[in-house]
UniProtKB/TrEMBL annotation:
<dbReference type="GO" id="GO:0005524">
    <property type="term" value="F:ATP binding"/>
</dbReference>
<keyword id="KW-0963">Cytoplasm</keyword>
<dbReference type="InterPro" id="IPR001412">
    <property type="entry name" value="aa-tRNA-synth_I_CS"/>
</dbReference>
<dbReference type="GO" id="GO:0006437">
    <property type="term" value="P:tyrosyl-tRNA aminoacylation"/>
</dbReference>
<dbReference type="GO" id="GO:0004831">
    <property type="term" value="F:tyrosine-tRNA ligase activity"/>
</dbReference>
<comment type="subunit">
    <text>Homodimer.</text>
</comment>
<dbReference type="InterPro" id="IPR002305">
    <property type="entry name" value="aa-tRNA-synth_Ic"/>
</dbReference>
<dbReference type="GO" id="GO:0003723">
    <property type="term" value="F:RNA binding"/>
</dbReference>
<keyword id="KW-0694">RNA-binding</keyword>
<keyword id="KW-0648">Protein biosynthesis</keyword>
<dbReference type="InterPro" id="IPR014729">
    <property type="entry name" value="Rossmann-like_a/b/a_fold"/>
</dbReference>
<feature type="short sequence motif" description="'KMSKS' region">
    <location>
        <begin position="251"/>
        <end position="255"/>
    </location>
</feature>
<keyword id="KW-0436">Ligase</keyword>
<comment type="similarity">
    <text>Belongs to the class-I aminoacyl-tRNA synthetase family. TyrS type 2 subfamily.</text>
</comment>
<keyword id="KW-0030">Aminoacyl-tRNA synthetase</keyword>
<dbReference type="InterPro" id="IPR002307">
    <property type="entry name" value="Tyr-tRNA-ligase"/>
</dbReference>
<feature type="domain" description="RNA-binding S4">
    <location>
        <begin position="359"/>
        <end position="420"/>
    </location>
</feature>
Amino acid sequence: MDLPQHTNDNKNAPAPAVLPLSDAVQEALAIAKRGVDELLIESEFAQKLARAEKTGQPLRIKLGLDPTAPDLHLGHTVVLNKMRQLQNLGHTVIFLIGDFTSMIGDPSGRNITRPPLTRAQIEENAKTYFAQASLVLDAERTEIRYNSEWSDPLGARGMIELSAKYTVARILEREDFTKRFKAGTPISVHELLYPLMQGYDSVALRSDLELGGTDQKFNLLVGRELQKDYGQEPQCILTMPLLEGLDGVEKMSKSKGNYVGITEAPAAMFGKLMSISDTMMWRYLELLSFRPMSEIEQFRREVEQGRNPRDIKVLLGQEIVARFHSPKAAEEALADFNNRARGGIPDDIPEVMLAGAPLGIGQLLKQANLCASTSEGLRMVEQGGVRIDGATVSDKGLKVDPGTFVVQVGKRKFARVVLA
């Protein structure tokens, strides 16, 4: 591809006339703003929408993801959901796989240098990335790009020229860099290049809007500034909140065991969603559901007037399972959940945080205080007295993977185990 050329052509151009905002544009703006943390700059984005309506030229909307792990969870889909909403409005969405930037490693939110991935690791992870993202996006209307297309051809000379456009002082304004610098924690030179390379992606793609999590705000703003340097109209940026996990406290993460994977079995997915608190339920609805906000507000009023919050959680769980599996799977997951509920699992059971996954079933039962010893736990398995999420455990050699699940021993001992 032809690399973007540096120009100042747009810097002295007259300001375009302000376009009126039609009802359709205002509705599109409301859809774009639903559940967001920030939309910068809103007035500019409104004008971009108005121009797109007037010219019939869709906006170019970019989301970049580094394939640092092969599996996506519901936390990742918060921003993908927003992409789908914008896609449904007729705009061009670009799913950018950061195969080049993955080799640098995104330092966002980290207090140590992230080990760069190898090319082999990146390629392996990227194989499943878009397939999973397509469970949310309309794959046929999604532009898939890899940032090695323009980053590799830059070469040493191009990298130096790009680096000259930003000062170290500005890079160190970024909060995580500032904290590490003040603490004397090492910052590798290649990490300083990451925001520049992500920003250059916006130049190469002529992005109108870039999406990301709240932890990406600095990187997104760098892209906006670089576009000005290259004579392009600067992109607007839209940041989405980081979804809390099932514990309602920490960010959803596989490493913390508080996640719902989008390729998990329907029953497991539904059961996990039913375990969230009545308070957290509303945040999940706003960020994960495709229901209109007016309908969600109606649900809130009904709960305030006495409706059981469980009814709303069931609707949310079924919607998510149907999205990633099928409506039939959602109905079966509900039936399975109800069957297990009739088995006498109490509503208020202790929650136990464990580490060391994969953990042998005997050790898990002991550490969760469900059995006095590992040997007693294995005897209970032999006798068919151990259940995980309602399913009887028959294998004494079972190694339990990370996750959140209800463990039952006998008729009266229960624990919600969060295993990391």
